[in-house]
């Protein structure tokens, strides 16, 4: 059960992360600000952390550690999803402000 929840959350986190990256790529090059670069860098770091968590769960398959790792992984991945959501919201607001509406 915890493994199923882990993979559901991991998939949602990846989808949300891809959405942010695609949104950042749509920002015209002349309008890329230091905040946008910092946002992209932070997302890259979060993606590396998510990757390490997923690999930890994969490598723990069949061991006694898999259940606790899945549970801890769910907590961290949900936290990363919240961070990504906040970045998406901030980017959307900035793009609306710049577009005049």
How would you describe this structure to a colleague?
The chain has 101 residues and is an all-alpha fold. Helices cover 83% and strands 0% of the residues. It is built from 3 helices and no strands. It has helices at 2-25, 34-59, 66-99. Helix 1 (2-25) packs antiparallel against helix 2 and helix 1 (2-25) runs parallel beside helix 3 (66-99). It is elongated. The N and C termini lie far apart (45 Å). The mean pLDDT is 90.
Brief overview, please?
The chain contains three helices and no strands.
Features:
single chain, 101 residues, mainly alpha, elongated
Total number of strands:
0
Low-confidence stretches: none
Strand content: under 5%
Radius of gyration: 16 Å
What's the rounded overall pLDDT mean? 90
* Count of alpha/pi helices: 3
Helical content (DSSP H or I, runs of 4+): over 70%
Q: What spatial form do the alpha-carbon principal axes imply?
A: elongated
- Sketch the topology as an H/E string, one letter per element: HHH
The major sheet is characterized as: none
- For the termini, the CA-CA separation is 45 Å
Oligomer: single chain
Topology:
Blueprint: H1 2-25, H2 34-59, H3 66-99
Helix pairs in contact: 1-2, 1-3, 2-3
